[in-house]
Amino acid sequence: MAPMELIIELILMPLVAFVVGMMMVLMMRRIAAKLQRRIGPPFFQPLYDIVKLHSKRTQVSHGLIHDIGIVMAMGGYIAAETLLPVPGMTGIAEKGGIITLLYLMMIPSLGLALGVGQCANPNGSIGIARALTAMLAYDIPLVIVIFGVAYAAGTTNLVDIIAVQQAGGFETWGAVQMPVLAIAGLIAMHASLGKQPFEIYIAPAEIATGPMVEMSGKYLGGLFVMQCFQLYTTSVLYVSLFLGGGTTWFDFLLKSFLVLAIPVSIAYLFPRYRTEDLLRLMWKWPVMLGLIGVAFVL
Amino acid sequence: MNSINKIPVIEEKRTNPLARVFDEFVRFCRSRSLFILHYCTGCGAIELPPAMTSRFDMERLGIQPMVSPRQADILLITGYVSIKTLKRVILTYEQMGSPKYVIGICSCTVNGGMYWQSYATAKKLDEYMPVDLYIAGCMPRPEAVLAGLQKLMDRIHSGEANSWEDYFRNYDYYLGNQQKLFGENWQTPTDIITEAKHYDLIGEGTLGKHTQILEQHQKPLEALDMRLGHDLKEPTE
Asked: Does B195 sit within 8 Å of A48, measured CB to CB?
């Protein structure tokens, strides 16, 4: 691949992810509104929110680490987008592989932990402690699931995993070949989104949105951008692992939005668990399902 | 005060031809995305849940509730403000990021309402902080709340809703009224004068005799002690 082409892809992939991610945020809020029999926000609402937050006059910074933390939170996901192949663009996915992607997806939580730590707000500290605990909870089933998929495909290269699934049409999709792993992956994905019933670290009524409590203006705007990337990364990773990626943009986006609609529809029907309940649940059911799935694959 | 007035105010020249379009876009986004912090002091709070949930659905106007003052744009005060409450309201207001808007709901925020004769109630909210909009009524129905919010959206879009600058430009007046209620030792953690200097919002009324009283006893803010576990022992002499 020509270097110029690669640079264009590296710029385009996060941009596409951002635009698609904003539509995913809109879908999430529209689903919530429909479930609560409301009309819901207008089409460009995620864009209005982000522009408004970045155009605030007063920007309250709590220090250098606070600034860097937000940059890490966004940067981790922006780097992750270049490792996620989309139809027509692979970026550096062939060289990176799925293990690098997993590492990059942890950086935002760590960046938030740094940034929130300097705010010295007790609600924020509780929130970030819970966020890291939640990461510990959902990462174990996620790693088991990804190990199973990579073992079955014989490679950790995401482009090859997609190619293997697309080889024989619908029958070779990961979800058809390894249904137990797909279910475990769906639960782990739901937890990694941090939506109800796994919303332990936002918890507006209890710890005042946890990590976001001291964020104002462009800092909160950065976190809104991060949320767009988070929804995109999680659903596209699931589509690449289990639903055969996408051959065209149409079926790629259709699959990503449908996959995201499952946890989001469940989310707004439930209250939330306590931290220890989340740990117990995540280390019991998805891990058990994942291990059974891996046993089938082996 | 004289030395302050001599500081030349640099008028920002917008040379970019798209600046006007950009400003218009930003104002539009500001008016279509409002995060509310509701300070529910009195009975007016009961009218907010119907305005937010499925019956009237605020979110279709881009208005959503937020939980911390840092994230919010609108401070919604729904009911009478006792003197003790007013301290918290002012602390909350000063922590919000500008541009910020204050809405007083119910007649109690307008003139004290049925608490007019109470010794413990602050009668007029706009003596202590600039109020953008009053929604009168005892209590106003959700339709009235939404109509008021839409009026505020129009004012933000046309650029008229900038009373938050008034708090910086006339800080002496607001501080004077606050000192009348809370005593001369009143001090908030937010340093409004420094903030006004930083954002070029120093006006005729920023400094005055009330801010002089404040400067006499003002203690500088100190960083919080960041360590695990607190020393519970009494300080020995």
From this structure: no
Contact: B25, A49; criterion CB under 8 Å:
no
What residues of A are in the B interface, CB distance below 8 Å?
29, 33, 36-42, 45, 47-49, 51-53, 55-60, 120, 204-205, 208-209, 212-217, 220
No. of helices (H) and no. of strands (E), chain B? 10, 7
Residue that has been written with the tokens 């780097």 in this structure = A79
- In tens, the pLDDT along B38-96 reads 888 878 888 888 888 888 988 889 899 888 898 899 999 988 888 888 988 998 999 88
User: Contact B11/B200 with Cβ under 8 angstroms?
Assistant: no
Residue B107's domain is classified under what CATH number?
A: 3.40.50.12280
Tens digits of residue pLDDT in A102-151: 888 889 988 988 888 888 788 888 888 888 888 889 989 999 999 998 88
**Model-wide pTM > 0.90:** no
Same domain? For B112 and B193 the reply is no
Q: Are A22 and A47 in contact (CB under 8 A)?
A: yes
The domain boundary residue, chosen from B161, B180, B200: B161
| Residue where a domain stops, chosen among B137, B161, B185 | B161
- Number of domains making up chain B: 2
